[in-house]
Amino acid sequence: MTYFEKLSAIRKQMSEQQIDAYIIPSSDPHISEYLPDRFKCIAFVSGFTGSAGTLVITQDFAGLWTDSRYFVQADEQLKSSGFELVKLKTQGTAEYIEWLAERLEPGNTVAFDGKLASVYIAEQLINRLQPRKILINGTVDLLDKIWQDRPELPKERAYILEKELVGATITEKISKVRAAMQKFNASYHLVSSLDDIAWIFNLRGSDVKCNPVVLGFALLEPIKTTLFIDRSKLDQSDKTRLEEQGVAVAEYDTLEEALSQLPAGETVLLDPKRTCYAVYTQIPQYERIIEALNPSTKLKASKNDIEAEHTRQTMVKDGIALTKFFRWLEGRIGKEELTEINIAEKLLTFRKEQEGFVNESFDTIAGYKEHGALPHYKATDESNASLKGEGLLLIDSGGQYTTGTTDITRVISLGATTDAERMDYTLVLKAMIEGSTAIFPKGSKGYQIDAITRKPLWDRLRNYGHGTGHGVGFFLNVHEGPHVFNTANIDIAIEEGMITSIEPGLYREGRYGIRIENLVLSIRDQETEFGEFMAFETLTLCYIDTGLVDKTLLDQKHVDWLNQYNNMVYERLSPHLDEEHRQWLAHKTQII
Fold it and tell me: Which UniProt keywords apply (predicted)?
């Protein structure tokens, strides 16, 4: 079926079921950012492959609401689909709800599949539309009937990590979660989010591309914990280990029955932003539900000493792979056919050489010239650009290792560059340095680091449309909450042990894009009469190209930081490199 035919088939069902508006979120029953193939509904219906968006379909309009990261991509992918791009004004908001409120009439019906919508979104729909006498139906799946050969749920094996790797046993983690439950006076706690499941049970798998997670739910009771998972994914030794640590293993599809049997009068804690509406409606005591952030989400955000040290070691491995890649790339520009796709494949081969490498942590963004201006660009056979000895190349990539997760962006020159390119590059570098060297009072929030980082760009009337940083898991999701460095994070404090990216950028549509990204670890700095202060330890180890730097735009402190950072990269990586790579890296990290 073409996208037009799929849209027509959905509208036909809407007409038959008297549905006036149908909503398709980018989500799954675990409210994941990255999805198993079975739940890539927006891509199936419209062709849009970005990781954030919502489709809204009426009989006379079909739109995709997404944010500025995807404007150019969506414009291209939605051509001839029947869908129009609706540009979000504020990233992460459900602005389509207001659009529906303004256009629907009393008695109209809005429908969605409750397995794909969070409790948070469903409640926004209900609170905004029901007072206007608009009906809400969260039990409608209009895709399954038209999705021939829809992928099945993944069946890959799962496995449990040792305490020596993650720093805590399953029992210890469950105890911490139960202690948090007591603060809410909650007898039960439902966990739906896959990275929380992975963290609590030291469980890893490959059910979602690039994210080492396993489809599952968990129900914590006062003295019992149940993990709902496809039991065939675990071997007997892992099942026994779970049982020995007080965890009962039940089949994945038995959760709803278990929830329906919860005793009346008991409180249930769940995260409304990470629990789907279909599961929520199976809990009988609505009035006894406590909606709050999953305790495990905050607990896993602060890495323990063992996780932090493993991550430092992982950065050495990743830095070796990147050094070999950039030297390989430099030696072949202009001498052989290089494209965005084959250089991404080559980078993967260098990472695969490293001990403990499992997978990429996301699809590599290799954006040459104007493609670098697309923050979430992924080369296709149609867009795949050939590299020449000129212009800027942006590489945003990362790896999943058993000892940690990496995410790094670098921009290099492939030849002749302009004054404008060098100025923009230097200002982005200056912004990254400002964020990385920030010293801030304990309790500071992400929006403050975001502003500190942006100031060098604001001073020159420049800005970028994405957040400054996101949390990163330990051999887990490369995008991890609850801590983010953006304007929306006014609530979550930066705590010791959090790993976060700092990645300012500048994007000149149709010309080039620049982003420089390191991962940092939040650490204690010092205490004065004015309170405790924190700082960042930079974790990422890969040289920053100095050939694009305009020193006249930097203060001495920025030059000093750059020289010290590049020297640290050389000192940490050179013992693991052969002589040719050492000499090459020594040249790249010379002081300026």
Answer: Aminopeptidase, Hydrolase, Metal-binding, Protease
